[in-house]
Design a protein that fits this description.
This protein is α+β, with helices and mostly antiparallel strands. Helix content is about 25%, strand content about 40%. It has a four-stranded antiparallel beta sheet with strand order 1-2-3-4.
Length: about 400
């Protein structure tokens, strides 16, 4: 039987040649499969111990002398070239396109190239508007001018990977919210909301009653999605004389701060303010006032129309160590032991190597974490997001992070 099988495969010269070729191919395939499996295992091990894509990008940025915030079209890919595991890192900065090979094990620059590209097309793609320009775009769309409105928010934000300016303002009893694309200035989304307003009308001193004028509204909320506006309709009816809504005198921010200080029983020299701006709360214009002394944190909402205290909270702070005491000691401290918000922002900017004119602040607030008073500072420069936590007593940086936000 065995001889018959052998004869079948090797009975003639032609059969012998074909059989030997088939066996050789099978052996080669088996060897290739084994080699491929071994190669895959080596690649997986190398990737596991590699420095990572973000670190590879940073090595390339550092070698090119490029600020990560100014880099565009960044790509980093793990690969195997010339017997080495590398990261291929490509990016554009200014008028130059860079290509790098970064050794995956330790970040050594293996190969690099830089090529000058056309400025015109790059500039057109990355044209960005300023915050003031974004505010003007929103006002123009709303059919208003700056003197007719009060801004309650105007800062940089990110929505689904888009860099946008969040713009919020109100005129009389109508509140507007806009998202304006940083690149190009297109309106990304918008909404308009009309609030019900209650107004106490003044009467002669002899009269003890108060007349309430109510404005009934139908809200309209047009929203722009992908550049297409969905415009609704609005209507309103009034009972009484609606002109009374603007008759009441407004207090200014300094007056509101003084009212809060008076209610708290402290003076301006004894506290540090962390927030003081105008806002809207359930359709009512208020001043948000926050400040702290050496022992207490205060939060107030003061009504803009008449200076009435709408809401307040008082929270005792845990005793913080003074700047001169050791990290393991504690004791009483006066307010001078705390650095100001502006000092904290300056420390964060110095750490990032930036100036205030280069960035848009997202957050700058005093907070308490595990009994320690800290400043949480967040800001953006282009698509680069920075976060810095600073000890409010010593000014030491507790935590710092800079991250590219796509």
């Amino acid at each position: 039987m065995t001889n018959t099988i052998i004869q079948k495969f090797f009975g003639t010269r032609k059969k012998t040649v074909m059989s030997i070729a088939g066996i050789a191919s099978a052996v080669a395939l088996l060897g290739a499969g084994t080699a491929y499996a071994a190669s895959g295992a080596r690649t997986a091990a190398a990737r596991e111990s590699a420095i990572g894509e973000e670190a590879a990008q940073n090595y390339a940025f550092a070698d090119a002398g490029v600020d990560p915030a100014s880099a565009l079209y960044v790509r980093a890919e793990f690969d195997h070239e010339d017997g080495q595991f590398i990261y291929e890192v490509d990016f554009t900065a200014g008028d130059t396109e860079y290509e790098y090979w970064i050794l995956a094990s330790d970040g050594t620059v293996i190969k690099k190239s830089a090529e000058i590209i056309a400025l015109a097309s790059t500039a057109a793609e990355v044209s960005e508007i300023t915050l003031e320009e974004a505010k003007e775009i929103a006002l123009t769309d709303a059919g208003l001018v700056a003197s007719e409105v009060t801004f309650t928010k105007a800062d940089l934000d990110h929505d689904d990977g888009q860099s946008v300016y969040d713009i919020e303002f109100y005129a009389e009893n109508v509140e507007y919210e806009y998202e304006i694309k940083v690149s190009g200035g297109a309106i990304y989304s918008k909404s308009k909301e009309t609030h019900t307003v209650e107004v106490a009308a003044e009467e002669p001193a002899a009269a003890a009653k108060t007349e309430t004028v109510v404005v009934e509204t139908v809200e309209t909320t047009p929203v722009v999605e992908n550049g297409t506006a969905d415009t609704g309709s609005s209507a309103q009816t009034t009972s009484g004389d609606s002109s009374a809504s603007t008759a009441s005198s407004r207090i200014d921010l300094e007056t509101a701060k003084n009212k809060a200080l008076s209610d708290a029983g402290v003076s301006a020299s004894d506290v540090t303010f962390t927030k003081a701006h105008e806002d809207m709360d359930d359709g009512v214009a208020v001043y948000d006032i926050e400040f702290f002394s050496s022992t207490t944190e205060y939060e107030y909402e003061i009504r803009v129309s008449d200076g009435a205290i709408v809401d307040k909270s008082v929270e005792a702070l845990e005793t913080a160590p003074s700047a001169s005491s050791g990290s393991g000691s504690s004791g009483s401290t006066d307010n001078s032991s705390y650095i100001s918000v502006d000092e904290a922002k300056s420390i964060a900017l110095n750490r990032a190597g930036l100036s205030a004119s280069d960035v848009v602040f997202e957050k700058a607030k005093l907070e308490k974490d595990d009994g320690i008073m800290e400043y949480e500072i967040e800001f953006y420069q282009g698509n680069m997001e920075y976060e810095c936590t600073i000890n409010a007593v010593t000014g030491a940086i507790i935590e710092y992070d800079a991250e590219w936000d796509d």
